[in-house]
Design brief:
Elements (H helix, E strand, L loop, with lengths): L5 E3 L11 H7 L1 H23 L14 H8 L4 E3 L1 H8 L6 E10 L2 E7 L4 H4 L7 E5 L4 E3 L5 E5 L4 E7 L7 E6 L8 E7 L2 E6 L6 H15 L4 E5 L8 H11 L5 E6 L7 E4 L2 H4 L19 E5 L6 H11 L4 E4 L7 E7 L5 E10 L15 E2 L13 H11 L2
Parallel strand pairs: 1-17, 11-12, 12-15, 15-16, 16-19
Antiparallel strand pairs: 2-18, 3-4, 3-7, 4-5, 5-8, 6-7, 8-9, 10-11, 13-14, 13-18, 17-18
Helix pairs in contact: 1-2, 6-7, 7-9
Length: 395
């Protein structure tokens, strides 16, 4: 397997242009033109060799680089030197505040608040409407949500209309350095565990294994609900690790295919595919974790890596899936460094489930349909979770 959900590959390109004479004759402006021509040649070569589907590139050659990339790949992107530096973390990186928004009319709807995050501390809740305010930079996710980030030591103020209220209130989100834990766990009823995973950030698989070990050492639960609603995934190796927590060692998780030979590979529930530099967090996993009855909750905002996990658990008959059809994103993007410290992000592969099912554009169908109530507050019932608990109790 190759590293990462968005993999960074070295770029070795045999493009030689005999334009030194022109540069010598015409001065600095010609040097800029030469550099741009070489960069454009790199981009065209990368697209021809690596885009998931072959494309007739000639019809787009009149476009500037950014427009060209978007024309051939809606999910692709060209990063200039500053943007690529920020992506790699060379510049001071914005920090996640645990808040995901979706545009709705003139404002935004809150679709996720991570427990114990700055957003949760500020009193925001799923279903709240953000009316105005200076929105910070956000990370656009595959389903159209915006995950809020702010620079360290910066606070933001938002006008928020909360569920059941007539007048908006001001909420201040204050950045703090605590690491957000994407895994939260509680017992909705005695003997049953509800595990929520909001994003597949680095270390999520290890956090999940650690929390489950602690819970199972106390007392093995009768059933477990894995909640992937509103989860847009993240790192590929973390998706593999989360699936590996519940699957037999070595089980197939997903198959990838694309135009380039580097885009054709499979990932399995094995350390080679879910670890980076850390020790194997599944080596000491409590054995009952792989046997406990399991239900996975999904909805229309479950996407990408979260769909990989749900599809693998469904195909191996390890879990029942409850909710609505998922978003349907089954592609992988790769980032290729280019000349001048720039980079190109391209869609290089699509994945299918262990049973060779594709969810791309159609979503993953649940075993049992149960609608998530949008904007649910603490006083309202969570129908999918209730249905999942009923199914677990019946087993």
């Amino acid at each position: 397997m190759h590293t990462g959900g968005v993999r960074i590959l070295a770029c070795l390109l045999g493009v030689t242009l005999s334009l030194s004479g022109l540069a010598a004759e015409s001065g600095p402006s010609a040097l800029i033109d030469v550099a741009h021509t070489r960069l454009r040649a790199q981009v065209l070569s990368m697209i021809k060799a690596n885009l998931v589907d072959p494309v007739d590139i000639e019809q787009y050659e009149h476009l500037e680089i950014k427009a060209l990339v978007r024309a051939v790949d809606p999910d692709g992107e060209y990063f200039d030197a500053q943007a690529f530096s920020e992506l790699l973390g060379a510049a001071e990186k914005p920090a996640d505040v645990g808040l995901a928004l979706r545009r709705e009319g003139p404002g935004f709807r809150v679709v996720e608040v991570v427990p114990d995050s700055p957003a949760a501390d500020a009193g925001l809740a799923v279903g709240d409407r953000v009316l105005d305010g200076v929105l910070p930079k956000g990370l656009s996710m595959p389903d159209g949500t915006l995950r809020m980030r702010v620079l360290p030591r910066v606070s933001i103020r938002l006008m928020v209309l909360q569920a059941g209220q007539d007048a908006p209130v001001e909420r201040a989100i204050k950045w703090h350095p605590a690491r957000l834990n994407p895994v939260s766990m509680h017992d909705p009823v005695p003997g049953y565990v509800h595990v929520r995973i909001g994003q597949f950030a680095a270390g999520t698989g290890g956090d999940l294994a650690r929390q489950l070990n602690e819970r199972f050492r106390q007392e093995a639960p009768k059933g477990l609900v894995l909640d992937l609603r509103d989860s847009t995934g993240g790192l590929l190796n973390e998706a593999v690790g989360i699936a590996a927590v519940f699957l037999p060692p070595g089980a197939l998780v997903a198959r990838f295919s694309g135009q380039s030979q580097h885009s054709n590979f499979s990932v399995h529930a094995s350390p080679h595919d879910y670890l980076r530099r850390e020790s194997d967090y599944l080596k000491r996993l409590h054995p009952d974790v792989k046997q406990v009855p399991l239900v996975v909750l999904v909805n229309a905002r479950t996407a990408a890596g979260a769909e990989i996990v749900a599809a693998a658990l469904q195909d191996h008959q390890r879990a029942m899936i409850v909710g609505t059809s998922t978003f349907g994103r089954a592609t992988i993007q790769t980032i290729f460094p280019l000349e001048g410290r720039t980079a190109l992000k391209l869609t290089t592969a699509r994945w299918v489930s262990p049973q060779k099912r594709s969810v791309h554009g159609i979503g993953l169908a649940p075993d049992e349909l149960s609608h998530t109530q949008p904007g649910k507050t603490s006083g309202q019932a969570d129908s999918p979770l209730e249905r999942a608990l009923i199914m677990l109790k019946a087993r």
